[in-house]
Amino acid sequence: MDDATGTIYYAPAFADAATSLRWFAALRDGVQWQSERRWMYDREVDVPRLVSSYRLTDSALPEALRDAAERVSSALGVPFNSVGLNLYRDGRDSVAPHNDHLYEIVEGYPIALLSLGATRRMSIRSKSRPRRVYDLDLEDGSLLVMSYATQLNYDHGVPKTRARVQPRISIALRVRPPG
Predict the structure, then answer these.
(1) In angstroms, rounded to a whole number, what is the distance separating the alpha carbons of residues 127 and 88?
(2) How many other CB atoms are there within 10 angstroms of residue 133's CB atom?
(3) How many angstroms from the chain centroid is the CA of residue 125?
(4) Which long-range contacts (CB under 8 A, 24 or more apart) does 126-130 make?
(5) Which one of 21, 54, 118, 128 has the minimum C-beta count within 10 Å?
(6) β-sheet bridge partners, residue 145
């Protein structure tokens, strides 16, 4: 999709299967995953996935993450400086429809999502009429790129599924403001 409301680009097999498997194993076993709680719907709830984050200049950045970030940054010509990780352990793990907080990203730069592991569906829905919905099955090794404008006009999320699915890691690359 590429219009006045934003650009969404999907590249299946951005990383080959062997590389994706190597990165997945290294990150699954080498990242300090955290469980979080947050306020939603007037109460504190468990975040239904494990998370982690790094600045790309962090000396503790796992090598697999450095390699993946460099490959994406080079392909897109974007100076990403931050990465958020989500580990979806099974179909019960999810992320509710949302857009990235605009104060946490630099205007004009895209967000890139590299998927490793099991295929999971991402739903992207317009915030205003005419309502548009894009359901994308994010495959192992795929890259999804969303322009800054999509954060203004669309919500995106990964819904729960009853299907038996293996774990998936999402690598979300962003350009964050300094500080």
Answers:
(1) 25
(2) 9
(3) 16
(4) 126/5, 126/153, 126/154, 127/99, 127/153, 127/154, 127/155, 128/153
(5) 128
(6) 9, 112
| 83, containing H or E segment | strand 82-88
Bond before 130 cis per omega within 30 degrees: yes
φ/ψ of residue 30, rounded to 5: -110, -5
pLDDT tens for the chain, residues 1 to 179: 899 899 999 999 999 999 999 999 999 999 999 987 777 678 887 778 999 999 999 999 999 999 999 999 999 999 999 999 999 999 999 998 898 888 899 999 999 999 999 999 999 999 998 899 999 999 999 999 999 999 999 999 999 999 999 999 999 999 999 87
Instruction: Say which residues have a Cβ less than 8 Å from residue 110's Cβ, sequence separation at least 6.
Output: 7, 76, 78, 145, 146, 147, 148
